[in-house]
Amino acid sequence: MNVTVEKRMDGWNVACDELIIPLWKGEEIAEAYPELDQRFDGGLAAMQADKEFSGEAKTVAIVHTMGKLAAKKLIIAGMGSPESFDFVSARAAWGRAAKVSTTKGKEKLVAIDVRTTGSLELDRLAQAMTEAFGLASYHYEGYRQKPKREAEPLSTVQLLVGSDEEAATAMVGVMRGEALAQGTNLARTLVNEPANYLTPTALKDAVVAVAERYGMEYEVLAKDKLKELGMGGVLSVAKGSAEEPFVVAVKYQGKENWEDVIGLIGKGVTFDTGGISIKPVAGMEDMKSDMGGAAAMIGALEAIGQLKPKANILTVIGCVENMPSSTAYKPGDVITTMSGKTVEIITTDAEGRLVLADCITYAKQKGVSCLIDAATLTGGIVVALGHFCSGVMTNNDALVGEVLDAAGQAGERLWQLPTFDEYRELNKSRFADLKNSGGRYGHGIIGGVFLQEFAEETPWAHLDIAGTAYSASANDMNPAGGTGVMVRTIAQFVMNRSQA
Predict the structure, then answer these.
(1) How far apart, in Å, are the Cα atoms of 494 and each of 345, 376, 491?
(2) Contact, 189 vs 143, CB < 8 A?
(3) Dihedrals phi, psi of 246, to nearest 5 degrees
(4) 321 near 217, Cβ under 8 Å?
(5) Which residues carry out catalysis?
(6) For each of the chain's 500 residues, which pLDDT tens digit applies?
(7) Angle at 198 between CA 195 and CA 202, to 5 degrees
(8) Which of 173, 181, 233, 489 supports an S-S bond with 127, CB 3.0-4.6 Å?
(9) Count of alpha carbons within 13 Å of 293, Cβ hemisphere only?
């Protein structure tokens, strides 16, 4: 999909399949668009009087123009109240309009009047609109013999503005929105891929593909190197699988000197059976999404590669598969991680934290100044926060403040959970330095503070996206399946650091 910005005073003479115009709650269309209503001989005002459309948030009305406009259809998109209009509500409103556009008809051009900005700056509005169309038009076909999607995706979306200055401002937002939407959609596709296609090798290749696309340095650590480095966490999880494990490190250098390095860590368990501590069969097919943290980091790298922020980043992703077999690691085993810390295995289904522990240690040894990890880590976070909000834990208030600010700017819900010392006590073992499961109650927090033992004094934030990386149902901008959650938050965090 191509998004352009065009200088036009109105869209009445734009030849396109659909012209979308915004309308505020309580606003009269005849007053907001007098020439438009005149072209319909007062018909639009009559329709509004008959309550066929309104400016209520996320309402959409479709009007066939019958030659009264150059567009074939007029779509009236409700924006809601100007007082409550922000980036999130703007994206939601335009997402609803985008969904109507992308589910009907063939390849098309859609023109959008951006008159309604509310309290948003024009570049933020353009970003919200671009993200809405980019995210709403996403489609994952999968491996059907006959394609399910009947309509072709949008070819071009035009944003109509009133001046050259506005066009330049809007284009800044468009470029940002396109990068973030493309990164999010890449993450969605990775999560949606079946585990027999997205093996640890394929996930490793996906990381490398992004690095090569944007000229980033990278290193692939294969099994022999993992053994040399003592990555017992990654290797133990991989023992039960015929698939080879990998750790991939990608270096993005946006500053002249390699300093103030942001460490991004992703859990890439391409399928999680639970290992010897095998999961129930119900819903196990969704465990292909257990690499959602890795997908978030890969998607963020995709966006960062386009946006080119002035920041330094080291991304480390552990790519493994957790399977039961005669060679699998077992409950009761004691393993040694790269840090030298030993871990008693209570359950082999708490494998992600072992992978992340080694990746965190590797990043620390490479000199990162802070750490952010993302993982579908615990069912406990789903119990605590459900499917609408991700959890964040930290050892550094300043860092988590930046992450929460970035989530707010990106329009992604994030909630901080505590990391009190009492929770850390639950991870202590009689036979090793730590155990990989500290019990059922507060499990989401216990899993997070396990990782804190490896972050140690390095400023660290942990994003648990187990409840948000995969959705069973669709909404205005997300089809069922992978959501690409936290791609935009992570990329926004990096952009904010770039401007600091």
Answers:
(1) 35, 21, 5
(2) no
(3) -145, 150
(4) no
(5) 279, 353
(6) 889 998 887 789 988 889 999 999 999 999 999 999 999 999 999 999 999 999 999 999 999 999 999 999 999 999 999 999 999 999 999 999 988 886 655 556 677 777 767 778 999 999 999 999 999 989 898 998 887 765 566 788 999 998 899 999 999 999 999 999 999 999 999 999 999 999 999 999 999 999 999 999 999 999 999 999 999 999 999 999 999 999 999 999 999 999 999 999 999 999 999 999 999 999 999 999 999 999 999 999 999 999 999 999 999 999 999 999 999 999 999 999 999 999 999 999 999 999 999 999 999 999 999 999 999 999 999 999 999 999 999 999 999 999 999 999 999 999 999 999 999 999 999 999 999 999 999 999 999 999 999 999 999 999 999 999 999 998 878 889 999 999 999 999 999 999 86
(7) 150
(8) 173
(9) 35
CA–CA dist 90, 193 (Å, integer):
30
- Quickly count: other Cβ atoms within 10 Å of residue 26's Cβ: 11
CA distances from 179 to 97, 186, 299 (A): 21, 11, 10
Task: Compute the distance between CA of residue 451 and CA of residue 394 in angstroms, rounded to an integer.
Answer: 10
Q: Write down the number of H helices and E strands in the chain.
A: 16, 19
Contact 137, 102 (CB under 8 A): yes
Reading phi first (left if > 0) and then psi (alpha if -120 to 50, else beta), residue 456 is in left
CB 471 within 8 A of CB 480: yes
pTM: 0.96
Inter-residue contact 395 to 460 (CB < 8 Å): yes
